[in-house]
Amino acid sequence: MILNGKHVGVLVGVSLLVIGGLAACGKSSSSSSSQGLATKQTVKLSAKSEVTTLDVSKAADSTSLTMLYHTQEGLFRLGKNEKLINALATKTTVTNGGKRYVFNLRKTNHWNDGKPVTAHDFVYSWQRTANPKTASEYAYLMAGVKNFNQVQSGKVAPSQLGVKALGNYRLEVTLSKPVAYFKLLLAFPTFFPQEKSVVVKEGSHYGHSGNATAYDGPFKMTKWTGTSQSWKLVKNPKFWDKRHIHLQTMNFQVVADPSTGLNLYQKKALDATTLDGTQVANLKNNSDMKTFVGGSTYYMQMNEKRVKALKNVKVRQALSLAINKQQLASHVLRDGSKAPLGFVSQNLTQNPQTKADFAKDAYVKQGVAYDLPQAKRLLKAGLKATGTKQLNLTLMCDDLAVTKTVAQYIQAELEKLPNVKASLNTLPYKTRLSRSNSGNFDLVLSSWGADFADPINFLSLMTTGNTNNNGSFSDAQYDALIKKSENQDANRPTARYNDLVKAEKRLMTQQGVIPLYQPATVELWNPKVTGYVWNPAGMSRGYQWMAVEK
Q: Are the C-beta atoms of residues 153 and 168 closer than 8 Å to each other?
């Protein structure tokens, strides 16, 4: 998930919070009753931008995806530490070497109009998303499903996609090859069902207002016209698990400015608000503050295709070693962000045997360290090898305040190197993204947030030819390790994990990318609102289990 602009996490904790049962927060299971809870189960939350669509096939921005988590139900939910929890799937059978999945579906869930949710709704939804005419930005997540590529290229009809209803309550999915993280994907909104009759009836209006959307999840959206600055989520009486839904109403409003958000929180007009760096420093002793780190990385790409010297590994290593990432996090950002251990973020996934953090297992000190004397030595050798006397680089970034601050810091750090001149080019997000994608840059600040909890979500970005590999880094050994993890070791968890650890180490040794920091989300939360569980990958699981105590 690209962060910043269109894909930036825009709700309070949207990319970091997953809502779990109250028991997961140290409460007893009896907390699910009315005992100890306030009579009025209403929370007041904010978003930094409007909802663009509630169309499962087309939603791509964080606000919209988060509302889908609130209002829709898929095969699985994500619980604490990315644990998969059955939602509409009650039983999963995997055969044919991990290429055939059969899901037994819950028979008690209904759309808000009372019609049952069936396997046919999943088939329709997936075929609609895979159809190239739909132009779904997240359709690529279905790449492992049989015939997906042929459907996308128009060679076969969407009906040939490897998904089939075996009656009303059994769903069969056939993959083209085993996908180790396939079940994790199924908790993402792109894989949720859709009610065909409503989609057809509403046509181009589907998903663009509260009344033009079908809901099979814990809440329905009201008072939303498609461009509203505020909206409500109200409890859905047709939802199969409604007895465990404590909240009755969630009131959302767009609050783009952190100062405004803090003011509203202090006036009790919001139950939570996200803080910026200055606010974090001023409120560091506030007991309402919660900090969440993990699931995303800010990094710098170097254009090896455009700048000859950047093809040299010593030059790339020199640029990385010249940047003090710890100082950037603790003294420049001051918002709880952390210096990175590598490209894959911390708190994302664990070693299947030891439970160690992947980022620690794959740590390569030189890939993220600060060592200016060594940087100068490497740069001298690298420039000599490439016949370069002066390195004039332009660093491109978004025109957001925090991004410009980071860019100015990096500019100053790089210019501590002899024979290096760095200039800045700040652009609106869409312009910057367009130029990044076309390779029209020397250096560019980029960011990525995990859509699902697997290192491949990061590491695949830097493979040769990947559309997000804008700097044209290419390493045969790295590509081979990624390919091995996706093919011969796909059904061998430990071997696959080790492949990815080796790939991360290779990426950092070759300095194919320069990780800069792991962003933090720092928030104030009303202490009476309980039941949320931090989840570092993907969007918020919805606030359905959250409750307001007396």
A: no
Q: Are 288 and 525 in contact (CB under 8 A)?
A: yes
| Residue 435 in tokens | 């130029």
The Cα–Cα gap between 74 and 215 comes to 11
The 10 Å CB-count burial string (b at 16+, else e) for 447-479 is bbbbbbbbbbbbbbbbbeeeebbbbbbbbeebb
Task: Tell me, yes or no, if the pTM score tops 0.85.
Answer: yes
Q: How far is CA 386 from CA 417, 443, 479, in A?
A: 17, 18, 25
Distance, CA of 463 to CA of 479 (rounded, Å)? 6
Strand partners, 214: none
Beta strands 520-525 and 420-427 are: unpaired
DSSP character string of 139-199: GGGGTTBTTHHHHHTTSS-GGGSSEEESSSSEEEEEBSS--TTHHHHTTSGGGS---HHHH
CA distance 148 to 240: 31
- CB atoms near residue 183 (< 10 Å): 17
On whether the CB atoms of residues 161 and 122 are closer than 8 A, the answer is no
Q: Burial-class residue 378 by CB neighbours within 10 Å (0-12, 13-18, 19+).
A: buried
Chain segment 194-230, per-residue pLDDT in tens: 999 999 999 999 999 999 999 999 999 999 998 889 9
Both tokens of residue 70?
């609130």
Query: Residue 70: left if φ>0, alpha if ψ -120 to 50, beta else—which one?
Result: alpha
Instruction: Provide the residue type at 35 as one letter.
Output: Q
- For residue range 514-544, list pLDDT tens digits in order: 999 999 888 999 999 987 766 665 544 446 6
- Token readout for 290 is 């919660």
At 351 the three-state DSSP class reads: coil
The Cα–Cα gap between 432 and 441 comes to: 9
- Written as six digits, the tokens of 94 are 């995997």
Q: Which two tokens stand for residue 332?
A: 């420049």
Taking a C-beta distance cutoff of 8 angstroms, is the pair 3, 429 a contact? no
The encoded tokens of residue 143 equal: 């790449």
Please check whether residue 405 is in contact with residue 332, taking contact to mean a CB–CB distance below 8 angstroms. yes
Tokens, residue 286? 């506030």
